[in-house]
Amino acid sequence: MITQPYKPLILAIDAGGTAVKVVLFDTDGHIVNHCNANVMTEHYPDGRVERDGEAFWQETLTAMREVLKGGVAQHVVSVGCTGFGNGIFLVDEAGQPTRPGIVSVDHRAQPIADRLLSNGQHRVLSAANGHRPWGGQTLIQLAGLAEDEPEVMIKTRWGLACKDFIRFCLTQNAMTDPTDASGGGLMNLDRQDYSHEALTLLGHERLVDKLPPIVNSSAIGGRISACIARETGLPEGTPVAGSMMDVASCALGAGVISPDRMVFIAGTWAINAVEVPQPVTDNYPLLNMLYRDSAARLVAEGSPSSAANLGWYLKNALGDRLSVTDALALAETCPIASKRCYFMPYIHGPQPYQGSFMRMGASDNEASMIRAICEGVAFEHLRHAESLIVHTGGHWPEAIRLTGGAARSPFWAQIFADTCNRPVEVVDVAEVGALGAAICAAVAGGVYRTLEDAVAAMSRITRRHEPIAENVAVLQQRYREFTRLDQGIKALLEAEAID
């Protein structure tokens, strides 16, 4: 419930791969009001994953109106947007979509990445943009669209990241920020500008003309247009921040502004991110971003293998008979030392590496299977963390900041702490990505001087889970077996593909 008198307010829009959240914050980082938009994402059998841009925007606008009811819009001093990284929204000069938006879990362009990996050109590409290529990457998706849909590209003026599409709708201004531009594989990180070399290697150097100008995350990336002011009640000219890709926004909202904390984002994707002390020149990660207005570099590893696996199981295996809360309470009744199955958390992964329960026995039941899902998700996050510390000189951060759906459960957070043998800290707001967008907007709106000042004022820890030694021993053994099983099934599938 909104209370009066009003303090200055900040509006944040967080457009994820499965949901869009519109959140109103005060300048201390507390949630004042929020609303989820009902957004449809189409998953096709051939691996395409798309979102109708116009319907996406209209549903987001409806949620904005709901959040801004009661006269609060006039107290909003700035707006921030975040959204899933990679993927792409193509629009014409007026901002009208020229085709449906592509979501980052879309696999249609994977053959281009595979071709680069097989012929060795990935090494040249990685040196140019600091990333390893993968099918959902903005750079690779753009190249695929230029090859497969040239008529669409002719009509397209701008290729925008998800959050940048929303900002264009708000401001009629085409902009991006360093996290989306670099995290999409589009930038030369040393020069901090677009990588003509990467585009030339792919044979599409002219695509640089489709890429928007880059502004800092805490800078003004546009202002609320007269049309949107009439639609929402927001004051015309309200600044809209450059903001950040959702991975970076979650890190910022979780207070990860130094190498002593690593963020785990446990949502649709399992994504871990940490600041690194020096540029990456080998073992290129999934994401390698200019962060905190290019003052730092944030590297991330991830895969579509996180908390959404539990949602799939509850809906498709249990028919929504249990809520998430009830399911986790049931899992907690399964003793940690009990014999139980393993779960490979790849329900949303690309073929052939998809989800499965393994080593199930007569003693397994719903409780043990749900616990196995929770553990499998934590194991995959640990694997990504082990890949990341290669870039930190082998040094683990002092603690993990856990965000996403798993963070809301003390039971699941404890599994993460015991799996990683590190303290796990949870931020005191549920919408951490939106908080990161609000932090950027607070600086763009002049409420705070720097991103670091805004983090200090707006981000707080509400829980800390210390690892329990006897649990650590059990889960470390299970992690070793999980890894052995996973490597075995992948080797089998690869052998079948060769045959």
Instruction: Please report which band the strand proportion falls in: under 5%, 5-15%, 15-25%, 25-35%, 35-45% or over 45%.
Output: 15-25%
Largest sheet features:
7 strands, mixed
Give the N-to-C terminal Cα separation: 62 Å
How many distinct domains?
Answer: 2
What does the model show?
With 499 residues, this protein is an alpha+beta fold. It has two domains: 9-242, ATPase, nucleotide binding domain (Nucleotidyltransferase, domain 5, 2-Layer Sandwich), CATH 3.30.420.40; 255-499, 2-Layer Sandwich (Nucleotidyltransferase, domain 5), CATH 3.30.420. The chain has helices at residues 53-67, 110-119, 122-129, 138-148, 150-155, 162-171, 178-183, 196-201, 226-232, 246-253, 308-317, 324-332, 366-388, 410-420, 432-444, 451-458, 469-498; strands at residues 9-15, 20-26, 31-37, 42-43, 49-51, 76-83, 89-91, 101-102, 158-160, 187-188, 193-194, 220-223, 239-241, 244-245, 261-266, 270-276, 287-291, 296-303, 342-344, 356-358, 399-404, 424-427, 461-465. It has 17 helices and 23 strands. α15 crosses α16 (451-458). The strands form seven sheets. The protein has a seven-stranded mixed β-sheet, sandwiched between helices. A hairpin with a 4-residue loop joins β1 (9-15) and β2.
